[in-house]
């Protein structure tokens, strides 16, 4: 297997990665045959997976614009993945050129590619770290340099928490991050769920099993379980809804049925 120039030496390109599969769904070029194979296998059960990812990205862009319009100039994007069109720093800095953005991911390809995309951008940085270790993220030099935790921050947890199993205490990690943030900070979150998928759960389970097979289990949580991540936040209107229903730019009824899979919401720390 040919190793492309952009692939860090340290990675095993025979093992699929969640962020490279996501990149493939979004039409990116930073993925390997092993990632495309896993993606195609999942799409045999849920052909609309690329639409799900696109709806997540579209929500993220609207929510970042909302945060920037509300006066927030600091963004911490955990589980940021491989940069693709319409990244957080592009959206935020278009509204507020002075905005600071820190991307966090534990995938070496995502980190390496983020570094190259951000070269020369003084207001943005990337950290190789894991959501399950919030203190490592908060103590990292890039967060220390770019984020002032005494001022409001927009914390993005977009399409990441469903890869954290209950045994790894996702609620504890989210609480720790919340406690580090100033009042007025925002939590921007999306999460996979069986609710909203235009398929019987048994069919969707086939796609879930593909992630289990590549040792990145996809944890489908209920609306109530996802709402628990917002403890300590006041929900911003319209609350926890399917991605196309969160402050849409265009008529939700024009969306692909798969776009309504899972939940998206924004909370403001009191």
Describe the model:
The longest helix has 21 residues, at 49-69. It is globular, with a radius of gyration of 17 Å. Helix 1 crosses helix 2. 37% of the residues lie in helices and 14% in strands. The model has no long low-confidence stretch (mean pLDDT 95). With 270 residues, it is an alpha/beta fold. Strands 3-2-1-4-5-7-6 form a seven-stranded mixed beta sheet. It contains ten helices and seven strands.
Give the secondary structure arrangement, pairings included:
Elements: H1 18-25, H2 33-45, H3 49-69, E1 74-78, H4 88-95, E2 100-105, H5 108-118, E3 124-128, H6 134-138, H7 141-146, E4 154-158, H8 170-180, E5 186-191, H9 201-213, H10 223-227, E6 233-235, E7 263-269
Parallel strand pairs: 1-2, 1-4, 2-3, 4-5
Antiparallel strand pairs: 5-7, 6-7
Helix pairs in contact: 1-2, 2-9, 3-4
> How much of the sequence is in beta strands?
5-15%
The termini sit apart by 52 Å
SSE series: HHHEHEHEHHEHEHHEE
Overall SS class: alpha/beta
Which whole number gives the mean pLDDT? Answer: 95
Q: Which sequence of strands runs across the widest sheet?
A: 3-2-1-4-5-7-6
The outline comes out as globular
**Count of DSSP helices?**
10
The major β-sheet equals: 7 strands, mixed
* Secondary structure tally: strands: 7
Low-confidence stretches: none
Output the radius of gyration.
17 Å
The percentage helix is 25-40%
